[in-house]
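Weekly structure sync, notes
Attendees: PL (lead), two postdocs, one rotation student
Agenda item 3: pending single-chain targets
PL asked that the sequence for the first pending target be pasted directly into the notes so everyone works from the same version. It is reproduced below exactly as submitted, 278 residues in total.
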Amino acid sequence: MTDAISNKFSNNPVITSDKNPTAKLAKALLTQSRQRKKAGQTVLEGVHLIEAALQANHLPQQIIISYSGLSHPEVQALLASLNDYNLDNRLTVVSDSVYQGITTLGNGVEIMAIVDVPEHNLHTLKSPITTDCLILNDVQDNGNVGTLLRTAAAVGIKNIICTKGSAQAWSPKTMRAGMGAQFGLTIYEGIEADEVLSYLRLPIYATSSHTDNIIYKQNLNRPVAWVMGHEGQGVCEDIMKQATPVALPQPNGQESLNVAIAGALCMYETLRQRQYAD
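Predicted structure, written out during the meeting:
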């Protein structure tokens, strides 16, 4: 490792027991959704997600590094950048074996961080949402949820509402799929499906395989809410009956598209109409 990093952490004790409170907490947060909800925290694994948090000024509560990970160039660069945040007292170095007992990843850069999950309460809003919104109606796969969040962030949709049956937006798996896009979004979770629309004052569009109302015929040049539904059952009846159903053309006759792909097509058609139309 570089002399600067080596000297700085040469006196740090190396944790060799998996009973260490920080190690135990990280493992519980990585593997137990109930623990994440109770603590209001999650774990970021890898340099990229920690950098995404720092760029959003969302400072880790704890940073855990394997002893061998200290010598990795990306870790050294990240640790050097932490000088501006005065986080030295939040850094724990653990033995390689303890780290491997915590992590859910295979080979990779051995650094992780425990962070608080941002709290956004839809019920306390003083006025309904009137800007673009993405509603995840019981989307259950972490990869799909993360991909949809990353796409929303890319096109500039900031408000996300997740009904109770959706995968956790801040779970480690969803964080990896979203590549840290969560830190640039306002995410409301755990909302009852029959309550969602009462918090909105804008047109609602929901993807459906039972309509001829093609997306390219819609006027999306105003704020809208896009609804993406359960991977098998689609959008629930309570929401669908108040939404405009929209179809994505599939001339070769496939039954349906993956929900993350469908969501990306809808959001990018919205962007195209507003910024790239002829």
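Discussion points:
- Residues 43 and 114 are 5 Å apart (CA to CA).
- The longest strand covers residues 111-116.
Action: rotation student to compare against the earlier draft before next sync.
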